[in-house]
Amino acid sequence: MLQVVSAPLDFLRIFAGQLRQAGIRFAITSGMACVHYGLQQNTKDSDWIIPADDLEKLRELLARLEGELPPWRVSYRQIFGAPLTAEFMAHASHLSIWDSAASVEHKVDIFSKPPRVKAEEIQVDTEGWATRHVVAQMKRTDRDKDWPIVQGLGQQLHERNRDECLLHLTNSEELLAAWQSATRSARERMTSRRPLLRCLETTPPPDKLGVERLLAIERLVWERVNEHRHKRYTRTWKDFYRRWRKESGWDWPTAEQFWLQHRRTLSATR
Questions:
Q1: Which of 4, 27, 189, 194 is the most exposed place for a label (fewest CB within 10 A)?
Q2: Whether residues 117 and 1 fall in one domain
Q3: In Å, how far are 39, 80, 83, 111, 261 from 74, measured between CA atoms?
Q4: Same-domain status, 15 and 96
Q5: d(CA 256, CA 38)
Q6: pTM for the whole thing?
């Protein structure tokens, strides 16, 4: 009998269905969300926002799926980030999942505190996709490839008459047009989130070239902030990993069941 191999989008739907059945709240974000919103063609990985309060149910679900027939295989990746528990989930946890014997590796990243996103802003549609506003904030990184996506999401928000477009548009002409059509209330609320917008209220207002210079400075600030945030995390993680590798009989990743891997990483991290 032939095994059906799940493509990335198929696996995403299967995993989302498992999460719903287990009563686990989730939001699909980052690359897969960008595919969903038509801003990139494909991606192999999936990123999920899952509240810290639901992580125990998620671990139970993964353990159950490993015990079913046909069994799933679940493993932390070599660079596993944080153990999948509320105690350490200020950053992401990195998993690999195979949902059949013939499955390709599905790389799954779990966030409980997604970077640059306020908890009260995490909303989803009926299928579980994170909003454009949430995805745009997570894409505000130090990677060149992410900034066109921020602009694209801002443009889509503008087309839908959403005030949040003022936070994400990085094209000077479109930002000026959105600013001119925004209400006074929207301007005040969005300016508190994006200081650059204050410069659009000057008399006379800045021209296109002036706005482009401001946008270049703003992006540089965002890139340096994200670089600093990420380096703090990676320095600490690398120090932990070097010390962990010195343990007698150390071997990682292992072929153990996920709950055993989790117990091991949790003990080592503590």
A1: 4
A2: yes
A3: 30, 12, 14, 17, 10
A4: yes
A5: 39
A6: 0.93
